[in-house]
Amino acid sequence: MMKPAFEIRMVKENLDLSMALLQAVQEEKVTAKQLFRDGPEDMFVAFAVDNNGPDQQELSRRAANQARAAFALAVIQTQRSLDRVFTNSPLEETNPDLQAARCVMFLLNNTIFPNLFTPVWDCPPEYRRKFEVRPISLLMDAGELHGKGLSWDHVGGLPQFIELLVYFANWIDDLTEVEPQAGPWDAVRPSDESKAPWNSVPEDELEPLIVIA
């Protein structure tokens, strides 16, 4: 399993690339015509609009969707990575800057996880306050956000969010992971061997696949 800090750096790199692609599309440095393919055999890596040919506006829309998806992935995975390091709740954190950073990420995850496409701020009453992460000049006022649609501007813009990811990755680099707590699902969770029978069972012992028409 990857270290939590490395996981955060990976989703940050993914978000960096998605934003670079969006900017390149908007500046028409990458065009729909460059990505369009005529043959159906190439469609899984190609771009087309209802087989009517290239369309830059549609490519821009899809690139923006890709950026939003990368942002959502960064939020969800970062919170999961933090959960592997910290045992206390964000509000119980004693370091004021780290507390603010953890609260911001907690609220983002709490907002995005239930609805990736149209997230609406879900801020528990105890979190409806201002949070300032001084080392990266991030200030978020969660006092008036509950029930509003999420905007990158609420966390100071996308560059500030990327700085937040770097802040977390650097902070937890040398921290020890928390031992995972056993849950009721562990008794029925498939083992590594059962998840990959083609690696552990001889081919002549595998049961034939059943195809449902």
Task: Provide an overview of this structure.
It is a single chain. This protein has 213 residues and is mostly helical. It is built from 7 helices and 2 strands; from the N terminus they run ααααββααα. It has helices at 4-26, 32-35, 56-83, 96-112, 158-171, 192-195, 197-200; strands at residues 130-133, 138-141. Strand 1 (130-133) and strand 2 form a beta hairpin. The two termini are 37 Å apart. Residues 182-213 have low confidence and may be disordered.
Labels describing this entry:
two-stranded antiparallel sheet; 213 residues; globular; disordered C terminus
Put the structure in a nutshell.
The chain is 44% helix and 4% strand.
Order of helices and strands: HHHHEEHHH
End-to-end gap: 37 Å
Estimate the strand proportion.
under 5%
Number of strands: 2
- Strands of the widest sheet, in order across it, are 1-2
Q: Categorize the overall geometry.
A: globular
What is Rg?
22 Å
Number of domains: 1
User: What structural class do the secondary elements suggest?
Assistant: mainly alpha
Give the averaged pLDDT, no decimals.
81
| Main pleated-sheet profile | 2 strands, antiparallel
The residue ranges in which pLDDT falls below 50 over 5 or more consecutive positions are 182-213
In DSSP terms (H or I, runs of 4 or more residues), the helix count works out at 7
The level of helicity is: 40-55%
